[in-house]
Specification:
heterodimer, A: about 375 residues, mainly alpha, MetI-like fold, globular, B: about 260 residues, 4-stranded antiparallel β-sheet, 10 helices, about 40% helix
């Protein structure tokens, strides 16, 4: 068969490498492709702009324009259209520390700063001394924190947990919950995939039982029922009981999230690790978990965020968490003002947002960092 | 196929031991549920042998070599590897796995670790080799597979052929006595098959005991001292490559060869 000669071809000059056409880059291109790419998107963009134009001035007026930044509660009562920041300033210490004695504020402050000093390098992948850092944070720090916060030794006045409250209590519950539920979740997830029938059954039962109960029920059980079952004279602190309840509850959720990651891992990874002679724990620690956890970072962070917010449920068993403290802060008549409650909750929203949004941003950063060229 | 045929092979170190047994499989059977996947397998591999296992897909070739390092469990019969019988004893399984290297069709490198970390992980944590020494060994093998410059990259940044050469180097870092290859070139683009076969040939030249499940008949002809043909979970025929390819005895073997050699 013969081919017409103009179908035969040999390239003689190299085609030049050139930048993309102008309309593929720049602000105009971004606007067109992101905001006005279709009729539907254009309508959405317009609706959003109208909504923002309506809501932003209202928010500004309430939070800044009409707000009372200085003065007395009488000024607040005279400005019912603006936020009452005077109230927040006056009651901030109660919202942060609860009934903790004012003279001892340096103790939670020290615990907080110490915690930051240990957590921040731990979260920075490049920071050195990871192992001593982890030991300091997981072993030494909790002991120091309990001694400092509760006192009763080394000449520190005893402060019972009933007097702890506010943001301090919320942070304590969140940190214990996050740090505790993660390893519990890992162990339960590994156990659920175990070949040993007893371990597998126990883990399935634990996970399903704890996930089948609302957290409120867990907290009620921990605070009301548990004392009925333990011998007289033996008590576990109410705060500790709530911490244990939250930790195990979220450990069960964490387990299922992590199990998803374990199942997403190709079988070849388990086999390659085994073929190299790595035993179960070594292959789990070095090969399986690093990859499985990376797959489910979004799920893990979702669970953490939900944990942080759910610590507010401890108010139903009488613990004075941030929300409860904010409610209690304005309870007496001297703080009465039309916008007191709004202002208080705005303050709570701001704090929860900072906590949860930074968790989410950090997770995004780690996800990007751990991406080792699967997509080129 | 032609990749291996065009090679000059140095046979001076390719010696099959007459007395030392590397792997001894006696009356081995395996089932997946009701499916009898391996039937009455008897296979003795001497030290220094280069065995190629061929056969149609689903014939049990991969399952057979995966039984040798216990990635699959056999239900009947006996497998002795380097003098250690494979039983449910986890300690013995780990002992066997330390001595037997395996290369997979899909490389199975650890994507979250750099190439160097892939190579040093097992020596450090299984053999207890000091890190510096493990890294030195790793670089030595990376040079042997001709990609030392990739040491600090991640597997996802390498081509398929490069990844498979890293996988071979990773196994060699454990200084195994036996190497198993499970279709090492089947997932590669045609232009990358040769670079992997070259590494396998140089390994054979060094006297390594090898069992290779492969469709590279050129490699089988040139390198193997024995070719095993399997079908439906049984060993149908084994012979020296020359005889196997030119004078197959069993009807099934003749049919198979007529289909793959054209």
């Amino acid at each position: 068969m013969t081919i017409e000669s103009n179908f035969l071809y040999v390239r003689e000059t190299e085609a030049p490498v050139s930048p993309p056409p102008r309309r593929e880059t720049g602000l105009g291109y971004w606007l067109r492709s992101n905001l006005f790419s279709s009729l539907g998107n254009t309508v959405l963009t317009v609706v959003t702009i109208v909504f923002l134009a309506w809501i932003l001035p209202i928010l500004y007026n309430f939070l800044v324009g009409e707000a009372v930044f200085a003065g007395t509660m009488d000024d607040c009562r005279a400005h019912p259209a603006g936020a009452c920041w005077v109230y927040i300033q006056a009651r901030a210490s109660f919202m942060v520390y609860g009934f903790y004695p004012i003279a001892e504020y340096w103790r939670p402050n020290t615990v907080f700063v110490l915690g930051l000093a240990l957590i921040i390098p731990l979260l920075m992948p490049r920071a050195p001394y990871k192992v001593p850092n982890i030991i300091a944070f997981l072993v030494v720090y909790p002991i120091v924190a309990v001694i400092l916060l509760a006192g009763g030794v080394f000449g520190l006045p005893y402060v019972p947990t009933e007097m702890w409250g506010g943001l301090m209590l919320t942070l304590a519950l969140s940190v214990v919950g996050v740090v505790g539920s993660f390893p519990i979740g890992i162990l339960l997830a590994l156990g659920r995939r175990s070949n040993l029938p007893i371990i597998k059954t126990l883990c399935i039962l634990t996970i399903e039982l704890w996930r089948a109960v609302p957290l409120i029920t867990v907290l009620f059980m921990a605070s009301v029922m548990l004392p009925l079952f333990v011998p007289n004279g033996f008590t576990v602190d109410k705060l500790v009981r709530a911490m244990i309840g939250i930790t195990i509850f979220y450990g069960a959720y964490m387990a299922e999230t992590i199990r998803g990651g374990l199942q997403a891992l190709p079988r070849g990874q388990f086999e390659a690790a085994a073929a190299l002679g790595l035993n179960y724990w070594k292959s789990t620690i070095f090969i399986i978990l690093p990859q499985a956890l990376k797959y489910v970072i979004p799920g893990i962070v979702g669970t953490f965020i939900s944990l942080v917010k759910d610590t507010s449920l401890v108010s139903i068993v009488g613990l004075l968490d941030l929300i409860n403290a904010i409610n209690a802060a304005g309870a007496s008549a001297e703080w009465a003002s039309p916008t007191k409650a709004f202002t208080g909750y705005t303050f709570a929203i701001a704090i929860y947002f900072v906590l949860c949004f930074s968790l989410s941003r950090y997770a995004k950063y780690m996800e990007d960092r751990l991406n080792t060229g699967h997509k080129r | 196929m032609s990749a291996a045929e065009s090679m000059d092979i140095d046979r001076s170190n390719m010696k099959v031991s007459a007395s030392e047994v590397a792997i001894d499989i006696v009356g081995m059977n395996k089932w997946y549920g009701d499916f009898h996947v391996l039937r009455d397998i008897d296979l003795r591999v001497m030290k220094g042998e280069r065995i190629v296992i061929a056969g149609p897909s689903g014939s049990g070739k991969s399952t057979l070599i995966r039984c040798v390092n216990r990635l699959e469990e056999h239900q009947k019969g006996k497998i002795v590897v380097d003098g250690i019988e494979l039983t449910n004893d986890l300690k013995r399984i780990d002992e066997v796995r330390r001595e037997v290297g395996m290369v997979f069709q899909h490389f199975n490198l650890f994507p979250h670790l750099t190439i160097l970390q892939n190579l040093t992980l097992a020596p450090i944590w299984v053999r207890g080799t000091p890190r510096a020494e493990a890294e030195e060994t790793a670089m030595h093998y990376l040079e042997r597979v001709k990609i030392p410059e990739q040491a600090s990259k991640f597997p996802g940044q390498l081509s398929g052929g490069q990844q498979q050469r890293v996988a071979i180097a990773r196994s060699l870092c454990m200084s195994p006595k036996i190497m198993l290859f499970d279709e090492p070139t089947s997932a590669l683009d045609p232009e990358m098959v040769k670079e992997v076969l070259e590494v396998m040939i140089s390994l054979a030249e060094s006297g390594m005991t090898m069992i290779c499940v492969t469709h590279e008949m050129g490699f089988a002809r040139q390198v193997a001292n024995r070719v095993i043909f399997m079908d439906q979970g049984q060993i149908i025929e084994q012979n020296e490559p020359e005889e196997f390819f030119h004078n197959p005895r069993h009807e099934r073997t003749k049919l198979f060869l007529s289909q793959i050699l054209h």
